[in-house]
Amino acid sequence: MRTTRRGGWLGAAAALALVWTVPARADGEQFMPVPSYRVGPYAAGGTSLYGGFIDYMNLINLRDGGINGVKLTWEECETEYKPDRGVECYERLKAKGPTGASMFHFYSTGITYAVLAKATQDKIPLVTIAHGRTDAADGRFFPYVFPLVTHYWSLNTDIVRYIGQREGGMAKLKGKKIVHLHHGSAYGKEPNVIFQKQAEKYGFESKIIEVPAPGSEQQAQWLEIRQFKPDWVIVTGWGVMNPAMLKNAARVGFPMDHIVGNFWTGSEEDVEPVGAAAKGYISAAINPPGKEFKVVQEIERVVYGAGKGNMADKKRVGSIYYNRGVLTGIVSVEAIRVAQGKFGKKPLTGEQIRWGLENLNLDAARIAALGATNFMQPLKVSCADHEGGGAAKFQQWDGTKWKIISDWIQADKELVRPLIEESASKYAKENNLTQRDCTKEST
């Protein structure tokens, strides 16, 4: 498979420049859009994330000859993490390839909101791993949106449960003070509802503090935190907000081991700029860093061995965001493989791949066969449940690397699921949507 280069690092005005493109033939290939962001304040995360995704697709092509003989093709479109450009990339890429786009991974909550109705109408899945609209986990009302692995509400219950463990039990949270410091965007605001519900359930005093995007200025917020004197700070951060958050926390003397970031607030790019002051900081993890996993080693052997790696900085291979891109590739390829089992070993439409996503079942045995043991949690999706997972581990920065410090902590689904159903039902009523019959849809 020949890979071509169009352009290089893109300027802010280059909204739709195409970076890495694998040209599709007339038929026999499955097209995957890659709406990336390698420019702007979130470029460090986007470059590693989409680099890992593309490297995994290259691994499938080079090592396996594609998915049951069907080669993957892709085209990259620069969004700069901006909703308007995300919509333009969606329109540009949705009809590419012999059967149209397989699915979209925007890794931007704002873009996901902007294209949700379009994608549903066009019957193209939006796979929103660890981002996007949380209530889309109710597949009865969101047939084409898949917040797989986990979402913001599940994660926030994972974090509070972890804090409860640290305090000696969930009952010990009563009377504690916890702050939610969040990015001033749709993404950052998503956990607020569940955070307040948890405060009511466990009796802790909550405070929500917003940091205007992109988040580099936080002096006023940390003055407010210091005055509130919380026991813990939960952070929903992104990009430049994260090292700025850690620097400000260090400046006011807040203990790093009582700050818990979410899974977009826990990468090497977040802590390395802070230096020794970040030591002890904790974050959630849906995938660990490292190269000890067979799947990453295979990418190095096959893809980089052939000189076809996507990462210009090979040191980022095995990083948190790179491995999350590999996880994205695994989920995407396996959903297509499942769909082929029903519709045939050929290029499939987005509507057919939606069935594959909805019937995805990655158990321990399949994960091991993929070389991903301890790399990801088991995932079982259904018509009603488009999340399929919900767990998180926790990791701590030791000054030079991330160290996993917990087992998988499961989400409080008894709290989360009724809220998801309530929110999804409200959305459906406002938009005149009909509830799907899941007894018929999954067969």
Overview features:
15 strands; 443 residues; seven-stranded mixed β-sheet; four-stranded mixed β-sheet; Rossmann fold; disordered N terminus; alpha/beta; single chain
What low-confidence regions span 5 or more consecutive residues with pLDDT below 50?
Answer: 1-26
The CATH superfamily of the largest domain appears as Response regulator
Shape: globular
- N-C termini distance: 35 Å
Proportion of β residues? 5-15%
**SSE string:** EEEHEHHEEHEHHEHEHEHEHHHEHEEEHH
What's the gyration radius in Å?
Answer: 21 Å
Strand order across the biggest sheet? Answer: 8-7-9-10-11-14-15
Q: Using DSSP, what is the number of strands?
A: 15
Mean pLDDT: 93
List the helices and strands and how they pair.
Blueprint: E1 4-5, E2 20-22, E3 29-36, H1 43-64, E4 71-78, H2 83-93, H3 109-122, E5 126-127, E6 145-146, H4 152-167, E7 177-184, H5 186-189, H6 192-202, E8 205-212, H7 219-228, E9 232-236, H8 241-252, E10 259-261, H9 268-271, E11 282-285, H10 294-304, H11 320-343, H12 350-358, E12 361-362, H13 364-369, E13 379-380, E14 393-397, E15 402-404, H14 413-430, H15 438-441
Parallel strand pairs: 3-4, 5-6, 7-8, 7-9, 9-10, 10-11
Antiparallel strand pairs: 1-2, 2-4, 11-14, 12-13, 14-15
